[in-house]
Amino acid sequence: MEIGNKIVYPMHGAGEVVGIEEKEVGGVKQSYYILSLPMGNLKLMLPVDKIEEIGIREIIDKAKVHEVAEVLEARSERSFGSWNRRYHATLDRLKSGDILEVAAVARNISRQNLKRKISSGERRLMELARQILISELVYVLDKPSEEVSKWVDEHIERRADDDEEEEE
Hints:
Layout: E1 6-9, E2 13-25, E3 28-37, E4 42-47, H1 51-54, E5 57-58, H2 65-73, H3 83-95, H4 99-115, H5 120-141, H6 145-158, H7 160-167
Helix pairs in contact: 2-4, 2-6, 3-5, 4-5, 5-6
């Protein structure tokens, strides 16, 4: 990995490697990638030797955007079990770092939100999923976040009625 690379940090979203620094922490010198995350205007330090363990990956290529759109338009998945079990299953999907899993979470909770008022916990998960998804698509599509957010919404809403027909 080098300066200028666009990468995805699971649970935080996409950013750009803006530097490499050496720091001494607890008497041990270690190299860190400096990652700038535009969504939330964050700067993170990631230990160079832990990148694979953390699950860092490069952003998707433009060809995969079609797959993301398909996931956003697909029927929502029904969730079963207690709130706690659903919450942890959703978190695991977000932690995977897989953009298609993140898109499915964003779709499922966003559509729930269109039908009924969702809980504050569900709202936080929805916002996190959307942030992770949009932050990566901003780089891939080279468009501002507002435009990408609108694109995501359009794809989620495009087939939302199909979910309602299935429930009847």
